[in-house]
Amino acid sequence: MIINPVAGLGGRVGLKGSDGAEIQHQALELGGRSESFERTLQALRKLSQISDSLELFTYPGEMGEAAVREAGLNPVVLGAIQTGYTTPEDTVRAAEDMAARQVDLILFAGGDGTARNIYSAIGQSIPVLGIPAGVKMHSGVYAVNPEAAGQAIVQFLTNTLSETRETEVMDLDEEAYRQGRVSARLYGYMQVPANRKCIQNVKVRSQSESATLMGISQDVVNNMEPNRIYIIGPGTTTRSIMERLGLDNTLIGVDVVRNGELVASDASERRLWELIKDQPATVIVTAIGGQGHIFGRGNQQLSPRILKQLGRENIQIVATKDKLLAIPGKTLLVDTGDSQLNQSLSGFTKVVTGFMESTMCRVSA
Amino acid sequence: MEKVQLREFHQARWNEPVIMEMGTPGERGILVPQAEAAVKSEVGDGVSVLGKVRRKSRPALPEVNQALVNRHYIRLSQENMGADNTLGISQGTCTLKYSPKVQEHVVSRHPGLAGVHPLQSEESMQGILKIYYETEQIMKEIGGMDRVSFLPASGGHAIYSNAQIISAYHKANGNSHKNEIITTLHSHPVDAAATSILGYRVITLMPDEKTGLPSLEEFKAALSDKTAGIFITNPEDTGIYNDQIDEFTKAAHDVGALCAYDQANANALLGIARAREAGFDLMHFNLHKTFSSPHGGGGPGCGALGCIEELAPYLPKPTVEFDGSKYRVDYDREQSIGHIKAFLGNFPVVVRAYMWCRTLGAEGLKQAAVISVLNNQYMTDEILEKVPGVSLHYSPEVRRMEQTRLSFDKLFEKTGGLGIDAVNARLVDYGISELWQSHHPYTVPEPFTPEPCDSYNKEDIDYYVEALKTVANECLENPEMVAQAPYKASRHVPNHVMGESFEVVASTWRQYVRRFKK
């Protein structure tokens, strides 16, 4: 159990986030209060029913120990911190220490920044679950609320059929956001319990995601034309296409394929431009889970000039129906940085959602 | 109003193994008599004629005596919550409705019906063919169609048959480029699944966030010269009726597509609205639900597939024809999509539908529809008013038809995780079968879709609402107790097995033995 004690500090006082010591200091002066302690307690209370069989590691004081003891649980406390002044490095170290103990799951309370820190420490090696306590929560690692986090953990730890799935670790550029610009980045993917009821979106229930991805990738590959260039955007949905082709892929980058062979890996905007300048080409992208961006988030390599060159008819969108349903308003978003292009990409479009199966979706700027 | 008293309920609970685990080697129920000498001289021992077809080893049947088999199945039936001893209101999206017992008596005891053999001569089956023919006339009138076939086993099979007819029609007209089918997310998922088997690319329309219905604009964006047909359920499974449906069918006809109406939720429409006036070319009713047959998990299904004159040549064969004096079975249909069911299909279901329609008459059918809608509206209002933690997504101001998709989302949020699964587990303690939730994909959180049909009276609905209210209050006041439910039922709460977990699922006994009993 890791708590980021400063998570959520900036939210109530309108600072959009709490990254950086200066902002935290400013937030405290403005009367900001940490959200994470209370929220963690709400989640941990759900664990009382399995406390006998639970071995719980945490970090000292406000980074977990206090809340865990308050919830009536008996933790093993690792590491050391400077009370009253915790840093992202503490979060990273805590996650590393827990990974070294080979824990089954890391539960943390925080926001996107915290998720990012934990991701940088453990990657996909250990399943995680976030108690939502931050200001920004674009990542898909969070339970719908603290109680649901507790519920999901009990199920995950007691259920013999526990499975995990990958979900996005996203974060906004806070500095840009404070200046009124929304710019989010896809940092990677972490494993969360495959409990769609308690995690991130209540609307979606367990469905066979791997089977759906098999269908989507088969459909896309069946329709690939010889000598055409295919730019495969980031994400796990598009990765399934690369896997079906038997090719290595860049999970958060852009790869290029032609005639079933890898032409470029993690290609830059310039490289893409050179490749498609005078060639027939199609770009295959997916939407970012929970928010719906198809361009402008996590795939900035696909610049306005590239999208213009390709044309709307050469943009193929792939996504599971579950993902589309979890997007607010079921509307896909484009934010290419070119408002005219955004407009031209808007309207209804077909999204490949399975083998021989598409779903109509609205695209909006 | 008098307070509703919940009844004391306790389900039978037997520590009952599966039948395959019962018995003693050598034990048996009956001894099949040896063939008589006269028979033997004609056909031999009846076994050696099988030749190579004969199985090499005995079938792996349990060796049990008759009494044990009898006890076993009676016990299982006591552990069930069958249609006859529970309120079926929970079982929405199935329009499971009233099935008078007198019909069972006729179907199973009347010698002319119970003793009939499909290979009898037409002359000896005139009465039965008359029932088919007249039931067809009734269904034609209710759906506004020109011909009706009772061969599809309804549901997915009927949709598949509809798609076959569409395919045959386009093929005959040289429209080989038409390879797309459009459906909506809130139609039955089988509309998409069954049509895709024929090789169609299925395009699904998303519901509008506010109305829950697909927008006409979205539909038009999906239509093209490639569109072969549309498959739509209306009212959709949310209970919301698309009153622009005629504009949808018109737009589809404009691109040369055919329109098929999945009337799985037809309870609200009998005698009030017809498929034809809404512009549909094909449709099917589920006779075993809308027309009075018990809907027994997987059967006996029977659909009434209706179509316009232009599509009649493609109907499955045989059809029943009448020349004014004699009925006959017509197998000689060149353009037919062919045989889709043995002989005349599921005959007892047709008889039940015939009896039900003849008993009620045109006015009665309409009344059944009106009562369905009234019951549903009353139930929905009562639930929303009295049961805590329930909300109605998509156009809460719009009246639902014969069922309503409600949501326990607020209960889930307030209790931090007690939603439909918890309510389901606890509801059986009050003698009510589980809530039908929703078809995939789940567009409403923590969904449940009750449907009172015309089968239940006000007291039944009040009892049902009271049980729901009691359970929801228990979730709020005593969550720990509800989390351990049920207490008075034979069932327990199973692990949720994800679709991915094929390796831990056994769908047959043989598979179970192979995987887990090595």
Automatic annotation (TrEMBL), chain A:
The protein in question is named: ATP-NAD kinase family protein
Q: Name one GO molecular function term.
A: kinase activity
Which InterPro entries does this UniProt record tie to the protein? AcoX-like, ATP-NAD_kinase_N, NAD/diacylglycerol_kinase_sf, NADK, Put_ATP-NAD_kin
Which species? Endozoicomonas euniceicola
Q: Name one Pfam family in it.
A: NAD_kinase_C
Which keywords are on file for this protein? Kinase, Transferase
Q: Does the entry feature the keyword Kinase, yes or no?
A: yes
From TrEMBL, chain B:
Q: Spell out the InterPro entries in the cross-references.
A: Aminotrans_V_dom, GDC_P, PyrdxlP-dep_Trfase, PyrdxlP-dep_Trfase_major
Q: Does the keyword Transit peptide apply?
A: no
**Gene3D superfamilies in UniProt:** 6.20.440.10, Type I PLP-dependent aspartate aminotransferase-like (Major domain)
Question: Which Pfam families does the record match to this protein?
Answer: Aminotran_5
- What would you give as a GO molecular function for this chain, any one? glycine dehydrogenase (decarboxylating) activity
Q: List the EC numbers from the record.
A: 1.4.4.2
Where in the numbering of this chain does the Aminotransferase class V domain appear?
A: 163-296
Name the keywords, alphabetized. Oxidoreductase, Pyridoxal phosphate
Functional summary from the UniProt entry: The glycine cleavage system catalyzes the degradation of glycine. The P protein binds the alpha-amino group of glycine through its pyridoxal phosphate cofactor; CO(2) is released and the remaining methylamine moiety is then transferred to the lipoamide cofactor of the H protein.
- Name of the protein described by the UniProt record: Aminomethyl-transferring glycine dehydrogenase subunit GcvPB
Whose protein is this, by species? Endozoicomonas euniceicola
Tell me the organism's taxonomic lineage: Bacteria, Pseudomonadati, Pseudomonadota, Gammaproteobacteria, Oceanospirillales
